[in-house]
Design goal:
single chain, 2 domains
Length: 167
């Protein structure tokens, strides 16, 4: 055989080996040195280089690359916030009432609250809040004490007038 005939025979054998399906023991063997040049030449042509061992590992149908699935965000990892609005209203007479809103819906309206409960709740809050509420409560106490002193003075006048009428 001449050198050209030998090269053609090797090329034909390598093409047949690349096209033949890999079965049995041939599938586990590594590609021979003869099939390697043929695989390289097809890879440079822009087509995919495929050997018998690769076709056994891949499925027959070319499946597209798996899409990256978007995972739903878990709400358990987030800190859930609850919107509650508590409004405590006091009058000059020292009467306190509370209104409570939950997510914009009125839950409680006009609930009577004792001044002592307002004072106790204020003490549990931040000092800026408690100082302001205590100032309001102190002003209400002073007004009540003034009113009490006025009423006691009037009661004393009425008793004197009654005593004069009985004598």
């Amino acid at each position: 055989m001449t050198e050209e005939q030998t090269n053609q025979a090797e090329a034909t054998a390598s093409q047949e080996a690349a096209e033949a399906p890999a079965t049995g023991a041939a599938a586990s063997d590594a590609p021979s040195a003869e099939s390697a040049p043929a695989a390289e030449s097809t890879a440079t042509d822009g087509t995919s280089a495929s050997t018998g061992t690769e076709s056994a590992d891949k499925p027959v149908a070319d499946s597209p690359a798996p899409k990256k699935q978007t995972r739903k965000k878990s709400t358990a990892k987030k800190t859930r916030t609850v919107e509650l609005t508590l409004t405590v209203t006091g009058t000059a007479d020292g009467e306190w009432q509370a209104d409570l809103l939950h997510a914009g819906k009125r839950v409680v309206q006009g609930l009577q609250i004792p001044a002592a409960a307002v004072s106790k709740a204020a003490a549990e809050l931040h000092t800026d809040i408690s100082e302001t509420i205590e100032d309001v409560l102190n002003k209400a106490r002073q007004e009540h004490e003034a009113k009490l002193a006025e009423l006691e003075a009037e009661v004393e006048r009425v008793r004197k007038a009654l005593a004069e009428l009985e004598s």
